[in-house]
Amino acid sequence: MSGTDDGTPAPAVAFDDEADLRALRGMWERLDPPPAGLSTRICVALQVEELEAELFTMDELVGARGEERVRTITFSSASLVVMITISDDGPHARVDGWIDEGGGLPVELRIADADGVHRTEADEHGRFVLDRLPHGMAQLVFHPSPARPTMRQSVVTPAIQI
Amino acid sequence: MGDAVTTTGREAERRVWTDAAADFAAYRAGDRDGLDRLVHRLTPVLWHVVRAYGLDAATAEDVVQSTWLALMRNADRVSDPQAVGRWLTVTARREAWRVAKQAARIDSHPDLADEQLDVRPDTGEEPEAAVVRKARDRALWQAVAALPERCQRLLRVLAFVDRPSYTELSAELGMPVGGIGPTRGRCLEKLRAVLAGMDWRTA
Fold first, then answer.
1. Per-residue pLDDT tens digits for B103-154
2. Which residues in chain A are closer than 8 Å to B162, comparing Cβ atoms?
3. Which of A8, A99, A150, B105 is deepest in the core (most CB within 10 A)?
4. What predicted TM-score, i.e. pTM, was given to this entire model?
């Protein structure tokens, strides 16, 4: 049995309750972990709540480009329409997007359990590219910006697998 | 019974709470990312605490999320950043307990699907060690399932929360505050007895 916290050996007959609780903890961590992406989904939910943001509705199409599977998703909200295609880029994922009248609009992509937030900005035609992305559950977030004065609140997409 | 856990592992578990306090202090001081860091740090702990109440995965997820929403709405009332970990775990347990009583959603310790043992990719572990660990995890899971429900709940909360509020626990478990320490000891003894019957130590 392991010793106690201060380094003295545990009494010979006593079991070490703390060590047993740690063994149980490890078992639960391995066998019943939180669902993938839970923390990120919660962060987005908090953001939606905080900004009283709108949630996009979503429409997905799966097609093929050559050998490659390409998914096209359209997100619509009262203030914004966004279309993205998701493709594989070697070991990474790549997102090509277009925002209607979205020139200069900042784009934020949050990926679950990865290195957090990826940011870019739409060009003057509303196009944007996010590449070398890790795979995972992701959500796009658009914040109000001088580039889009009609947009009063942030808009968040449902979580998608990229 | 525990595998040898280094002091570093134990310190890391404790550091979670002090790091959480720092995240929350940063958030309160206007650093919005502090809240996201806090969510990533403590959501796994809250998940286990909530699952201790036997809620199914979808309900557990809702409870964890509403706990965070409650923190955001009441951030001003948590006066001491050091207290944020306790505030969150108590809130999560209170909500999980309320939901568990209300709906018959108790799935106290479901059978373990075979696939569940293989979901986690082993990182850098020797194959033999991985096999031994999986066998031990499975035995431990089954042994816990053989315990009375209140032992299951108590042990899971205690495994993840350093010093939970005994007042709340005592109300939930229907035992006096002074009974929790001895009950924890008895639950662990029962667990060891079940494991002894399974030849777990030599597995």
1. 664 555 555 554 454 545 555 667 888 888 888 999 999 999 999 988 999 9
2. none
3. A99
4. 0.68
Number of H helices, E strands in chain B: 8, 0
Chain B residue with Cα closest to A44: B36
Give φ, ψ of A18 to 5 degrees: -65, -40
How far is A3 from chain B, CA to nearest CA, in Å? 10
With contact defined as beta carbons under 8 Å apart, do A82 and A99 qualify?
yes
Which positions in chain B touch A114 (Cβ < 8 Å)?
none
Say if the Cβ atoms of B5 and A15 lie within 8 Å.
Answer: no
Question: First and final CA of chain A: distance in angstroms?
Answer: 46
| Mean pLDDT, residues B48-75 | 93
- Set out the domains of chain B in order of their start, with CATH numbers: 1-107 (1.10.1740.10), 111-203 (1.10.10.10)
Going by pLDDT thresholds of 50, 70 and 90, the confidence category of residue A65 is low
For residue range B144-194, what is the model confidence (pLDDT) as tens digits? 999 998 899 999 999 998 777 777 778 777 778 888 889 999 999 999 999
| Nearest neighbour of A42 by CB, restricted to B65, B133, B189 | B65
Q: How far apart are the CA of B102 and the nearest CA of chain A, in angstroms?
A: 23
pLDDT at B165: 73
* ipTM computed for the complex: 0.85
Do the Cβ atoms of A29 and B48 come within 8 Å? yes
Interface size A-B, in CB pairs within 8 Å, comes to 111
Q: Tell me which chain B residues have a C-beta less than 8 angstroms from the C-beta of A2.
A: 2, 4-5
Spell out which residues of chain B touch residue A38, defining contact as CB-CB under 8 Å.
43, 47, 61, 64
Furthest C-alpha separation in chain A: 75
Whether residue A112 is predicted with pLDDT greater than 80 in this model: the reply is no
